[in-house]
Amino acid sequence: MATRFCWLGHAALLFESDGQRILIDPFLTGNPSAARKADDVEADFILISHGHGDHVGDAVAIAKRTGAVVVANYEIAGWFETQGVAKVHGMQHGGGFTFPFGRVKLTLAFHGSALPDGSNGGNPAGFDLTFADGTRVYDAADTGLFGDMKLIGEGGLDLAILPIGDNYTMGPDDALRAVKFLEPDRVFPIHYDTFPLIAQDAAAWAERVRAETQTRPIVTPPGEWIEL
């Protein structure tokens, strides 16, 4: 089965690859742009980039219902255990692990990570994902621009997923610079328009990507599947 993904709104993503379902940052309940309800989402693995409530979201409830493995930094993985989640896999930045769907490596991200109850969420992360079919995806999650994105792009990326909302993350200008650093085949914007504070014109940003880079931007409303 070819790898495909669906943006569920904000920073929530669902990947399907080789019969495995990988859910990332499932903020659905309380998300005005959510394409699905939490009770309707199935997952074999749930990846959490950092501890903020708009990324942890419904992960505890979904993990308990589906039996999914929660993958996160060591501190967040431990917190999920205290919430009664049976299957967790803790990692740290720069480290990688091969799961049934492919390999996950945690990358740097410049952001915060306090958990919803104020617990220590460790350091925020992005995800460098290489699926079993060879598809390579970089989900930057919540971050500002940083120079080591050039290193992440080495070896080639099929898709980069970048925040463009500004205020809490990169805005359109820095996200465009990130595309130039990463040089992915395609790029998909996230973390915008959920709330007025992060409203952006994604179509206008995509036109700038087309004009200034060789990368192909993809802009869709939440809920549409995209083949990779």
Number of domains: 1
How far apart, in Å, are the first and last alpha carbons?
11 Å
Number of helices: 6
Strand-pairing-aware structural class? alpha/beta
Fourth-tier CATH superfamily name: Ribonuclease Z/Hydroxyacylglutathione hydrolase-like
**Overall strand count:** 14
Principal-axes shape call = globular
Physical arrangement of strands within the biggest beta sheet:
6-5-4-3-2-1-14
Assign a percent range to the helix content. Answer: 10-25%
Order of helices and strands: EEEEHHEHEEEEEHEHEHEE
pLDDT below 50 for ≥5 consecutive residues: which ranges?
Answer: none
Radius of gyration (Å):
16 Å
- CATH architecture, by name, is 4-Layer Sandwich
Top CATH class: Alpha Beta
CATH topology: Metallo-beta-lactamase, Chain A
Q: Secondary-structure map with pairings?
A:
Blueprint: E1 4-9, E2 12-17, E3 20-24, E4 45-47, H1 53-56, H2 59-66, E5 69-73, H3 74-82, E6 88-91, E7 96-99, E8 102-108, E9 125-131, E10 136-139, H4 149-153, E11 159-163, H5 172-182, E12 186-190, H6 202-212, E13 216-217, E14 225-227
Parallel strand pairs: 3-4, 4-5, 5-6, 10-11, 11-12, 12-13
Antiparallel strand pairs: 1-2, 1-14, 2-3, 7-8, 8-9, 9-10
Helix pairs in contact: 5-6
What can you see in these coordinates?
- There is one protein chain.
- This protein has 228 residues and is of the alpha/beta class.
- It is globular, with a radius of gyration of 16 Å.
- It has helices at residues 53-56, 59-66, 74-82, 149-153, 172-182, 202-212, and strands at 4-9, 12-17, 20-24, 45-47, 69-73, 88-91, 96-99, 102-108, 125-131, 136-139, 159-163, 186-190, 216-217, 225-227.
